[in-house]
Specification:
With 273 residues, the chain is an alpha/beta fold. Helices cover 48% and strands 12% of the residues. It comes from Mycena metata.
């Protein structure tokens, strides 16, 4: 057997771990391997049994020390990961390209992120009622802008403090009369009011679609903001246009008006012609 050796655990306090005196030398390992391969008997069975007993007593000492070192290793690994993350965050504070962009550029990027999804006029199947209701709630609330506002304080100030980002109003009124949204009418109206408030005095671009008897409150809310309409597109039943009658003579900024309705006398309904 080789003489016992020590492994230094802490140079500062001279803590050491004593290696086992039972560690085999090459000749002993070769001897045992030869016996195992030949299946021959061993001349000194008593000595082998004593060695087995000593080994069983020695292994727990190693297990205990390995467990202690594993815990230290895991702690050090976790600490290093935390330090690496902190380092990357600090570098990001100083070097992230997005932080050097002018506010005007960020606003333009956010406008692209907030491009409304297309609506259609086909009836919504019952299997999609809940999905479409949530989709409309997200659209009315300005979902992409809200998501951007939650990234950091700087982006929140930009999204909520830039009226231009809220100047595009797109509504799918089919969703406002679904059984799945009957509970959400007032919430949708509040979200629409909030979007209109956030747009402040910015000219509005409005797109409204919805074939069938749709909820009139949304159109009435938009009519109140008609002095700020810059462009307006309506794809609705002609009866729904009556809810826009209050816009007569209150369209000073209007540049474009598109109406797709089942009537031959749209001008009469709107009283803007």
């Amino acid at each position: 057997m080789p003489p016992a050796e020590e492994i230094s655990l802490c140079p500062a306090c001279d803590s050491v771990f004593k290696r086992s005196a039972l560690l085999p030398c090459p000749s002993r390992s070769a001897e045992l391997l030869k016996i195992l391969r030949t299946n021959s008997g061993h001349g000194d069975a008593t000595a082998v049994r004593a060695l087995i007993s000593s080994l069983l007593a020695e292994l727990p000492r190693y297990d205990k020390e390995i467990g202690r070192l594993d815990a230290i290793f895991e702690t050090l690994t976790a600490d290093r990961s935390a330090l690496q993350k902190l380092y990357e965050q600090c570098v990001g504070v100083l070097d992230a390209p997005i932080r050097r962009l002018p506010k005007e550029v960020i606003v333009e990027i956010f406008r692209f992120c907030n491009e409304p999804t297309e609506t259609c006029q086909d009836p919504i199947p019952p299997s999609l009622w809940a999905h479409e209701a949530q989709r409309e709630l997200r659209r009315v609330a300005g979902g992409p802008l809200i998501a951007l506002s939650q990234v950091c304080k700087h982006w929140r100030l930009i999204t909520l403090g830039t009226p231009l980002l809220w100047s595009k109003i797109t509504l799918d009124l089919r969703c406002w009369e679904l059984p799945a949204t009957s509970f959400a009418h007032q919430k949708m109206i509040r979200l629409l009011d909030r979007a209109l408030d956030r747009s402040q005095q910015t000219p509005l671009d409005i797109e409204v679609s919805g074939i069938g008897q749709c909820h009139p409150q949304a159109l009435e809310r938009l009519a109140l903001a008609s002095p700020r309409w810059r462009s307006a597109t309506f794809v609705v039943e002609c009866d729904m246009l009556r809810h826009l009658s209050k816009v007569a003579g209150k369209l000073p900024l209007l540049e474009t008006l598109r109406i797709n309705a089942l009537t031959e006398n749209v001008a009469t309904l709107l009283m803007v012609g």
